[in-house]
Amino acid sequence: MRIDTVFLFDLDGTLVDSVYQHVLAWKEALDEEGIPLSVWRIHRKIGMSGGLFTNQLLRETGLAIDPERIDRLRRLHAEAYGRLSKGVVPLPGAKELLTTLTENRIPWAIATSGRMETAAHNLVALGVDPAQVPVVTRDLVKYAKPDPDLFLAAAARLDAPIEHAVIVGDSIWDMLAARRCRGLGVGLLSGGYGTEELERSGAVRVYDDPAMLLEHLDEVGGRR
Ligand SMILES: [Mg+2]
After folding, report:
1. pTM of the predicted structure, to 2 decimals
2. Which of 37, 166, 189, 224 is the most exposed place for a label (fewest CB within 10 A)?
3. With a cut of 50, which residues of the chain have pLDDT below it?
């Protein structure tokens, strides 16, 4: 039996260099709401769904966070990210990796825990047109990472079984989601998580960034 591999990519920290801009945007939003949280604690939560993010926030700060406040936080974050994302660029090798997959007729899609209001900036930086490429955002599924819904929806858009998917992400939330839907998790260090944590969360391979993944594409089934 021939297995035709497809690639599903996370966006922030995986294809674009945007993790720290997101962290600082959340920091601004939380400051504005008078919620004290250290920057490193925010970083640990980037890549998970907004709902889980606020639940964790609730646990760590002991604050009551009502739906209106959650909504305000999301708006403040999106506003701040809109400003900070001006400096966001693709990670090394990201554009070349996507081009190589396309040229070799290996289907790929993007699945991000972010909403289109923030993802749109990154897609522009990456030169990806969501009208041409399947892009699944938080707006389109009930639960975001570490639930597998985003990746399942992305695989469905490619008409591919999830077991044939190589799921590339920079956070432990991507790897947990990959494991939960039985895709093959591949970790990148370009979002700031370490090799050990990514492996412990299910990454079968870990590379520095998209450029290094491109060099080793044949190791994960991306035959040219
Ligand atoms: Mg990410």
Report:
1. 0.92
2. 224
3. none
